[in-house]
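Take a specimen:
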Amino acid sequence: MKIEGALFDLDGTLLQSMEMWQQLPLQLVRRLGGEPPEDLARTIEAMDQRQAAEYIIRTFGFSVSVERMLQLVEELAEEEYRQHLPAKPGAQTLLERLRQKKIPCGIVSATQKELSQAAMERLGLWKYFSFALDCGEYGPKTKPHIYLAGAEKLGSRPGCTLVFEDALHGARTAKEAGFLTVGVWDPSGEEHRAEMEALCDQYIERLDALELEKFFQ
């Protein structure tokens, strides 16, 4: 088998950002005068940002537009991506290994592609990627559109493309679309670990623990 490309989720996979995203919906609702349940982030986990904004407006009865809600989300998150969020352990080591094998890489994320690029540039990792795509353009990861678009941009076939995901719903969608899936451990996904281990072609606790050679056998 020849690996032709690799697609990476961002949050919880390349970046240690899931705790920030778990807190952000709570901050947003409180800023608008509501009282959120502690599990709000889990409820909207599989939604893209527009769907999540619509859900919050509908659920809490806020009299703001979806566009204003998305703007508030961007304002709260932007500083973290541009200045603070760290990379997941082993990210640069794995990306360098992929580059040495001439495997092109792209980012497929629910986060705006501009913020994905900004975070990777700050961390010195953007040089490993050909592009970033986001779910705002391609829809949520409960459907395979963003993965298929990423593979097309890489020039790789799904069955020869690695998809790195920390979230069960994303990994499942990619797997059902015919991709090779690598589950990446993150504290936010611990409760789904057994399902991820059973679903994915490999499951790793650190990015540099990937047994890449197994995909070439």
Q: What stands out?
A: The longest helix spans residues 66-84. The mean pLDDT is 93.
